Amino acid sequence: MNRYILAFFLFSFLGWLWESIYCTMRKHKWANRGFLYGPICPIYGFGSLFGFFIYDLCKAEHLPTMEWWMIFILGFIVSMVLEYPTSWILEKRFNARWWDYSNVPLNINGRTSVPTSLAFGTASILVMKVLIPLADRGLITLSETLSNILALLLVSIISMDATLTISALTDFQRRVAAIDEGFQNHMTDIINQVYSNQNSLYNKVISRIAVFKLSERKNKIAKQLCEERFEELIKDYFESDVVKQMGQYIQHGTTTTLEHCENVAWISYLINEKLHLNADEKALIEAAMLHDLFLYDWHDGDPSRKTHGFDHPDIACNNAVKHFDISEKKQEAIRSHMWPLTITKIPKSREALIICFADKYCAIIETIRLNKKFGLRH
User: Fold this and answer.
1) Residue 240: which CATH number?
2) 334 pLDDT higher than 90
3) What are the b/e assignments for 254-266, b being 16+ CB within 10 Å?
4) Which of 91, 248, 266, 363 has the highest CB neighbour number within 10 Å of its CB?
């Protein structure tokens, strides 16, 4: 699992490097290619993962060794299959195109073309015959601990990068700032009105309120109210014997699975509150509290645990359905919380997206054991 994650980031970076150099040379000015802020082009990473799967199947003799012309044809087809839907989704979602082949002969709606796919098919030979075997030998030399840390760190970084990128592209940050500014202006109007009706002694007290910072309000009054509301939402789960079982197993560092679920629920709750995302609060907290209800120790060395990262969302969801009869929306949030590792299970709701981000944030903080310093409950 870690090998595939690291390979994805390695080839995403190489793809970004190639595209940036190529476009810079063509335009005679620096061109930072890619959809995200960071130096990666995920489409190359996904293409390389497909190549790695084929490479592993051939290495294990489940598939015959591929000749260069077979690789060329496969690369040609895969490039078209990846480019067209990716271009369509990005344009429909963000009203922008990251590449346009309209001026290239034999193009399909400017999203993909025969000449560029021929080039990718040729490059696939180099990737399959040289780069993937080199990468495989290099990744094998990494220790299990280092692989774990790097994979977790990189997945956390790309999750935060994707969140920032999508926020910027959808003008999300401007809307949050406008909400905050509107609140401040409203509070100023209230205070000014109070000023005009109170005596000078009372004005001195009010003046202290008039200059208060929003962050101070959050840190004092709102924090207490948030915690009280959050504890009210989760208290029923600590009365469940099934949920209590999660306290028997370590999840990350010294944090138990139960503590991790509470941490994720708390961070999810704060994200929803502070960014005014208007997610279904009850569904968000319930899915977060049950998202790792797999009820076993994944560190025990059992061979079946090697695919724990891929398997446990479904196992946790099945247990949650069995013991709590949760809705389809909550099931989807639980099954997709490991995305993009579970690549086909994409978060489809606000609740699922929030939990997906909060889970990775908590996982990395718990692993480096700085829980309290970074706002976790345990």
Assistant:
1) 1.10.3210
2) yes
3) ebbbbbbbbbbbb
4) 266
